[in-house]
Specification:
Helix content is about 45%, strand content about 10%. The chain has about 160 residues and is mostly helical. It has a single domain, classed as 3-Layer(aba) Sandwich (Rossmann fold). It binds adenosine-5'-triphosphate and D-gluconic acid. Adenosine-5'-triphosphate binds near residues 60, 144 and 148. This is Gluconokinase.
Length: about 160
């Protein structure tokens, strides 16, 4: 929705998972760093290609930990570790309480549309770690999709990302 509204390209991180990672998650087994690092590196390389051709790209990704986001930030060849403000990659966190996320995942898995079972939600939230210094904007994800879209477009057009 956001990429369409901006007229830019879009990458969904789940499309970069290996079959083995997807099978593991569908069995309710949380991924480890060993599983995640090659996945994040492949996604990083895909983002880098977009940046090299001066494209804007929207990426949706459960980049739960700072160290995972650091891998993605390296898609910007000029990124210097910790220099979040000057990094070309900007992060927005779609924030919702566990119960809301759980009910959405349950509906989605009932439709057979996704490999992610609700049993993995707890382990995902336990990993979620955001350092204030990263300047990541939290966007309320309990509201309508249109309102979420408008909030992110406003952050982008006011150049507010990374300026907390
Ligand atoms: N603001 C919203 N209001 C109502 N339903 C929503 C909203 N956002 C997402 N959903 C629903 O929640 C489910 C999960 O959304 P979606 O697949 O976009 O999440 P995601 O962030 O990509 O999740 P994951 O990281 O697990 O892939 C979908 O069925 C979607 O329709
Ligand atoms: O790092 C991980 O454990 C995975 O990337 C997960 O976060 C799922 O793929 C995602 O939540 C479902 O979309």
């Amino acid at each position: 929705m956001l990429s369409k509204s901006l007229g830019c390209s879009y990458l969904e991180a789940d499309d970069f998972h290996s079959q083995a990672n997807k099978e593991k998650m569908s069995k309710g087994i949380p991924l480890t760093d060993e599983d995640r690092i090659p996945w994040l590196e492949t996604l990083r390389d895909a983002i880098r290609k977009k940046l090299e051709s001066c494209e804007t790209v929207i990426v949706t990704c459960s980049a739960l930990q700072k160290k995972y986001r650091e891998i993605l930030r390296c898609a910007d060849p000029e990124y210097k570790c910790g220099d979040y403000r000057n990094c070309k990659l900007k992060f927005v966190c779609l924030d919702a309480p566990m119960e809301v996320l759980a009910s959405r995942i349950i509906v989605r898995s009932k439709n057979g549309k996704h490999f992610m079972p609700v049993s993995l939600l707890q382990s995902q939230l336990e990993l979620l770690q955001i350092d204030k210094a990263e300047g990541i904007h939290m966007v309320d994800a309990t509201v309508s999709l249109q309102y979420i879209l408008d909030s992110i477009v406003a952050l982008l057009s006011n150049n507010k990302l990374n300026s907390m």
